[in-house]
Design goal:
heterodimer, A: 110 residues, alpha+beta, Alpha-Beta Plaits, four-stranded antiparallel beta sheet, 3 helices, 4 strands, B: 157 residues, alpha/beta, Mannitol-specific EII, Chain A, six-stranded mixed beta sheet, 5 helices, globular
Chain lengths: 110, 157
């Protein structure tokens, strides 16, 4: 099993992303309102105000989704997320991270 | 499997000319019933209307996805209709509905049911596809478009 984090910068894709999770058989995930570091640096810390054009984060917020999923689902998840919002290596699209899980309880199927 | 595996040209109705939401649902479900995929059409029809009472399946952008899971529907089946004039589904955005997907399935497989609903919803989030479907003049044309688009999606398990 893996713990996955997906930072979704383009919040307008949230429904589509969650629908794709359902199609993949992922029965649950947690969605958190979040803010990128660049946004805080550029807008809340005056000394960095002059670097706004360098700090990619122009959006006021993003969503962080996390879930525990079977290992074999990871490649298809990434492929599907990239179909929805484009290459994750391109700045501003999102960040996908997976971490091995050594114990989980309470993860249920549909 | 793919959603479009459940669709065939006989389940695609172009144009739908019904005047009301309930007539559209009735017409679409009859297209499935003709193939013997539903045990009891009246029960299935009422189950779909019951689901509509819970909350409209007019999800906005001219799309509605009426559906039910009911023991009168032992098989998963999909029908699709295009209503050029638009029909009132009390949609969440108050707009008339032009593209209607009807999904029925058994009660004992909610997992596949929710996957199929998600697939329909995700396909219909593609604005270009919606516009192309509205231009379709025949079931074959619409089915080919849907199959082509779903070809980019993974198989449902």
């Amino acid at each position: 099993m893996k713990l996955i984090f997906f930072v979704l910068n383009k919040e307008e894709f949230l429904n589509e992303v969650l629908e794709s999770f359902v199609e993949l058989g992922i029965s649950g995930a947690t969605v958190i309102d979040s803010v990128g570091m660049g946004r805080i640096l550029a807008h809340d810390i005056p000394i960095f105000a002059g670097f706004r054009n360098l700090l990619q984060e122009s959006r006021p917020g993003n969503k962080t989704i996390f879930s525990v999923v079977d290992d074999e689902k990871i490649p298809l998840m990434v492929k599907t997320l990239e179909q929805i919002m484009g290459d994750l290596d391109e700045p501003g699209n999102g960040i996908f991270i997976s971490i091995p899980v050594d114990f989980a309880k309470g993860v249920h199927q549909f | 499997m793919q959603l479009t595996d459940l669709l065939n040209e006989d389940h695609i109705l172009i144009p739908l000319k019904c005047k009301t939401r309930d007539e559209c649902i009735r017409t679409l479900i009859e297209s499935i019933h003709k193939e013997g995929l539903i045990d009891d059409i009246e029960k299935a029809y009422l189950a779909i209307l019951e689901r509509e009472k819970l909350m409209t399946t007019g999800v906005g952008n001219g799309i509605a996805i009426p559906h039910c899971k009911h023991n009168s529907c032992p098989n998963f089946a999909v029908a699709f209709g295009i209503h050029p004039k638009g029909v009132d589904f009390e949609a969440i955005d108050k707009k008339k509905v032009h593209l209607i997907f009807l999904l029925v399935g058994p009660e004992n497989n909610p997992s596949l049911h929710i996957k199929l609903l998600s697939r329909i919803s995700r396909l219909m989030s593609n604005e270009e596809l919606r516009e192309q479907l509205l231009e379709c003049k025949s079931p074959r044309e619409a089915l080919e478009l849907l199959k082509e688009e779903e070809g980019y999606y993974f198989e449902l398990e």
